[in-house]
Amino acid sequence: MKQFKNRHPYMFIGPAVLLLSLFSLIPIAIAFVISFTNMDLKGLADWSSITFIGFENYKDLFSDSTFIKSIYNTLFYVVIGVPLVIICSLSIALLLNYGTSWIFNTFRAVYYMPSITNIIAVAVIWGYLYNTEYGLFNFLLSFLSVENVPWLEEPTIAKISLILLAVWKGIGINMIIFLAALQGIPKSYYEAAEIDGASRLQVLFNVTLPLLRYATFFVTVTTLIGWMQFFEEPFVMTDGGPLDGTISIALFIYKEGFQFSQFGYAAAGSFILFAMIIVVTVIQFKFRKSDTEY
Amino acid sequence: MAAATKKSKLEKSIVIFIMVVGGILVSIPFIWMISSSFKPESEVLAIPPTIIPDNPTIENYIQLFTNMNFAVYLRNTLIIVLFSFLGLLFNAMAGYGFAKYDFRGREKIFYIVLATMMIPGQVTMIPVYLLLNYMGLTNTMTGIVLPGLAVAFSIFLFRQFMTTIPDDLIEAARLDGAGEFYIFFRLVVPIAKPIFAVQGILTFIAGWNSFLWPLIIANDESLYTLSVGLSLLQGQYANNFALQMAGAAFMVVPIIIIFAFFQKYIVEGFTMSGLK
Questions:
Q1: Domain spans of chain A?
Q2: What residue numbers bound the domain in which B29 lies?
Q3: What is the ipTM of this complex?
């Protein structure tokens, strides 16, 4: 009987754990190994043509101007995009938390909508909005007598255009997390603040924001990891151009791997990205203040 | 907020005003998409642009299915969605296993499952491609579907929810002689309906939106998903924005409809899962 019972937990977790191992854990090991090889399309057909080249790929990467550019661009995306997403989603959450009538519920859905819609569709739509000649944005700006903005045709402006789109899409999910946290703050804190005669701004900065510390931390970590893997927006809208001005590390890895079939080289790039993500995450955990208990 | 008494009418009006203006700004891309998708090709490039089409037409939508293979893409996408629900069942089972059984290595295996959440997709995408190539599964539906079946985050949410189901209930069913799988499907699944609702919607959305993996694995157009087809459309008909907008609308509108019906559950689910 005991023997019989012991089998069951493994039958329940088996399928999922097996799939995760096969497509998540083992690949990590494989990626690590091939990052030290010169594996390419030839190696795919004939394994004997693969040779170990040690740290060659890693060395090459750091003298590859496109890769350096992709690191610079990714940092640009992260440094501007992450704070923007957090500030916007927090502000909207505070607005939505103000009331409970149907209008607040409706607009909660409106703000959430971009985050669930298909990224390719979104990129196609924004590509049209950004079109220099026929786009809505330039048409609207022409009323303010702003000259045609080359939204996607000038490297720096193109990066900012992609960030705008990604912020628009990234607000929803983070806003929901902030909203959930806001609703979890006990009412007694606000009552106490009110008795003490605190102003609305004082309540915001001395009660609400400190109590949102954990949610903010969670949102920051996940948003940062997400932005370091920035991919679809540059992939669909600019394909990394103009002049590699929007290429991100993730897009670089994809191009090396699946357009040029340089599997070993791309795997090495992916490990550098992985290392960067781990370093940033660890730093954040170090800086994190003790959990708020309430 | 308990400070409600302090809220003046004016303040509330200002908040609602800001919220509505922001909401309209956020909705512009959607409004523009819908409006443009009903315009004939000439009108979509007209300056000044029209918000409501002068000569509304559904020609663009028809063209998606006649000139482009959107029917095939739709079928593939629906197959992926269907299989992702099988994955959802696996994730629920795993969540239940981790929540309600005491077995050797439980903690360790669970932490390993959580650790896979940290791995960026870009690291695994090349080796998974090589693995599938080795198994002869590239350019097959199996190869597209298989790697996405198990999702660590989903297992985690299911486990969180299922730990709240009382042990006594399961024990009582066992004493009545119910088998373990009978207990799971007849007792646990009905109790866990709310979390299934949330995960079901998220799974549908993820499956419907799947892009990168089908793009990598599928060489034949007959295996493309709607997302891949749409990005293809953008390349081929770069200046036919009306057609592109119809394609985008075809992808976005179903999600918005489903979301409109179920948004309450998604928001509640996030609150419920203790993700705050």
A1: 35-286
A2: 2-59
A3: 0.81
What's at A169, amino acid-wise? K
Same domain, B55 and B99: no
Helix, strand, coil shares, percent, chain A, to 5: 75, 0, 25
Contact A12 B96 (CB under 8 A): yes
**pLDDT digits over A167-200, tens only?**
999 998 889 888 888 888 888 888 888 888 888 8
Q: Which of B1, B128, B234 sits opposite A190 (nearest CB)?
A: B1
Share of chain A above pLDDT 90, in %: 24
B27 and B50 both lie in a single domain: yes
The answer to whether residues A85 and A170 touch, using CB atoms and an 8 Å cutoff, is yes
SS3 state at B53:
coil
Q: Give the residue from B11, B37, B59 where a domain finishes.
A: B59
Contacts of B137 (CB under 8 A, 6+ apart): B143, B146, B217
Q: How far is CA B44 from the centre of its chain?
A: 30
- Mark the ranges of chain B whose per-residue pLDDT is less than 70: 1-7, 266-276
Q: What is the mean pLDDT of residues A211-227?
A: 87
Residue A292 in this model has a pLDDT that exceeds 50: no
Among partner residues A16, A215, A228, which is closest to B150 by beta-carbon distance?
Answer: A16
What's the pLDDT tens digit per position in B198-207? 888 888 888 9
Instruction: Tell me what pLDDT residue B270 has.
Output: 61
Higher pLDDT, A202 or B89: B89
B235, B136: one domain:
yes
pLDDT given at position B275:
47
Tell me which residue has tokens 């059984």.
B101
For the stretch A48-54, contacts whose Cβ atoms lie closer than 8 Å and that sit 24 or more positions apart, written own/partner, are A50/A264, A53/A264
The H or E element containing residue B239 is none
Q: Does B189 touch chain A (CB under 8 A)?
A: no
Indicate if the pLDDT at residue A5 is higher than 70. no
- Encode pLDDT of B176-202 as tens digits: 888 888 888 988 888 888 888 888 888
Residues of B in contact with A113 (CB under 8 A): 26-27, 30, 256, 259
Domains of chain B: total = 2
Does residue B78 share a domain with residue B51?
Answer: no
Tell me whether B14 touches chain A (CB under 8 Å).
no
Same domain, B177 and B80: yes
**Of B190, B33, B2, which Cα lies nearest the Cα of A200?**
B2
Which residues on neighbouring strands pair with residue A52, listed in sequence order?
A: A37
Residues B97 and B142 in one domain: yes
Quick one: closest CA in A to B88, which residue? Answer: A16
Minimal CA separation from A23 to chain B, in Å? 6
Q: Does B91 touch chain A (CB under 8 A)?
A: yes
Contact B119 A180 (CB under 8 A): no
Does B29 lie at the interface with A, CB-CB under 8 angstroms?
yes
CATH placement of domain A35-286: 1.10.3720.10
pLDDT for the residue numbered A90: 93
